[in-house]
Amino acid sequence: MIEVEFQRGFPGLSLDVAFQAPAGITALFGPSGCGKTTTVNAVAGLLRPDRGRIVLNGRVLFDGRTDLPPQARRIGYVFQDARLFPHLSVARNLRFAARWRRGADADFDRITAMLDLGPLLHRRPATLSGGERQRVAIGRALLSAPELLVMDEPLAALDEARKTEILPWLERLRDEVRLPMLYVSHSVPEVLRLANSVVLMQQGRVRHAGPLTEVLADPALAPLMGAREAGALIAGTVVAREADGLSRVMTAAGPIWLALDRPPGTRLRLRILAHEVILSRAAPQGLSALNALPATVIDIRDGMVQLALGDERMLAQITPRSVQMLDLKAGAACHAIVKSVSVLPS
Ligand SMILES: Nc1ncnc2c1ncn2[C@@H]1O[C@H](COP(=O)(O)OP(=O)(O)OP(=O)(O)O)[C@@H](O)[C@H]1O
């Protein structure tokens, strides 16, 4: 767990930042110039706050008295450009990061296997693709045995094909390495695919910090991620393939049937946008939509109905006239009819 709280003034912007990030990927998200890079630099020890307190797993990195230098903070940093040593092979770039550590050989084998770096070990950085270079940079950061991984727009310099190539590795990192990771990004698709939590930043301040699912399902916060993005992000697992070819996906909101070809056990993230959900007070009958889930209204605001479905939250975009016709208010029982679901790998 990383605990961050600091202030730092610049002529054009004063930063006043506070959030905590547990294990998993926490995206620092916000418009250009809102202070994302400055924040991760303060955490990594590359920028000195005016005041504050930064604590990693109970260890003070910075406060009024302590100010550990970057190399003593146990933080792995992956920059936009990989910054590998050009004259060293991939293997030597990797070994360099672990050079002082006991147990480094076992880590070398484990991390090389996890990121499938074996075939690249004898190559020089100049002969690698941008995506391969970033994979090596991630491996190098992990080999320093960090307690926190900081990634500042690690995909920003890559073209779409290379981004697509590296995303599954970042997912693997998220699911297999139990580290807190701060991930700076202003790409909504990247955040949706990778993040567990989000720190939403605006003009040097934290507007909200919390689980991604909570941000997307909150009508007040979702617009900060881009108006089109309001909706739910629900975790599910494929449990069965039905006789008619549809897959049954179990979620905390209930079972959802999807036309998918994934084996049972596959974990997914399901994205259900607010404008793809319609509401009905009675259990719907005679509808072509496959998925109608019992729900309870939590709140109605700005044309959005916020719903509870078991432990999950969902949004439905709705006109004031429909709110009136259906007599919807907080606490009302209804059914959420989901017209379409997009599936993100998890
Ligand atoms: N060394 C500095 N000197 C003066 N001002 C600075 C300095 N570093 C950061 N700032 C101020 O902080 C602002 C935020 O910069 P920062 O790079 O953290 O934003 P960002 O959210 O990462 O933006 P982007 O998405 O474009 O990378 C800058 O626009 C600038 O006003």
TrEMBL record:
<keyword id="KW-1003">Cell membrane</keyword>
<keyword id="KW-0997">Cell inner membrane</keyword>
<dbReference type="GO" id="GO:0015098">
    <property type="term" value="F:molybdate ion transmembrane transporter activity"/>
</dbReference>
<dbReference type="InterPro" id="IPR011868">
    <property type="entry name" value="ModC_ABC_ATP-bd"/>
</dbReference>
<dbReference type="InterPro" id="IPR027417">
    <property type="entry name" value="P-loop_NTPase"/>
</dbReference>
<dbReference type="InterPro" id="IPR005116">
    <property type="entry name" value="Transp-assoc_OB_typ1"/>
</dbReference>
<dbReference type="InterPro" id="IPR003439">
    <property type="entry name" value="ABC_transporter-like_ATP-bd"/>
</dbReference>
<dbReference type="GO" id="GO:0016887">
    <property type="term" value="F:ATP hydrolysis activity"/>
</dbReference>
<dbReference type="InterPro" id="IPR050334">
    <property type="entry name" value="Molybdenum_import_ModC"/>
</dbReference>
<dbReference type="InterPro" id="IPR003593">
    <property type="entry name" value="AAA+_ATPase"/>
</dbReference>
<dbReference type="Pfam" id="PF03459">
    <property type="entry name" value="TOBE"/>
</dbReference>
<keyword id="KW-0500">Molybdenum</keyword>
<protein>
    <submittedName>
        <fullName>Molybdenum ABC transporter ATP-binding protein</fullName>
    </submittedName>
</protein>
<keyword id="KW-0813">Transport</keyword>
<keyword id="KW-0067">ATP-binding</keyword>
<feature type="domain" description="ABC transporter">
    <location>
        <begin position="1"/>
        <end position="228"/>
    </location>
</feature>
<keyword id="KW-0547">Nucleotide-binding</keyword>
<dbReference type="InterPro" id="IPR008995">
    <property type="entry name" value="Mo/tungstate-bd_C_term_dom"/>
</dbReference>
<keyword id="KW-1278">Translocase</keyword>
<dbReference type="InterPro" id="IPR004606">
    <property type="entry name" value="Mop_domain"/>
</dbReference>
<dbReference type="Pfam" id="PF00005">
    <property type="entry name" value="ABC_tran"/>
</dbReference>
<dbReference type="GO" id="GO:0005524">
    <property type="term" value="F:ATP binding"/>
</dbReference>
<feature type="domain" description="Mop">
    <location>
        <begin position="286"/>
        <end position="346"/>
    </location>
</feature>
<dbReference type="GO" id="GO:0016020">
    <property type="term" value="C:membrane"/>
</dbReference>
<keyword id="KW-0472">Membrane</keyword>
<dbReference type="GO" id="GO:0140359">
    <property type="term" value="F:ABC-type transporter activity"/>
</dbReference>
<dbReference type="InterPro" id="IPR017871">
    <property type="entry name" value="ABC_transporter-like_CS"/>
</dbReference>
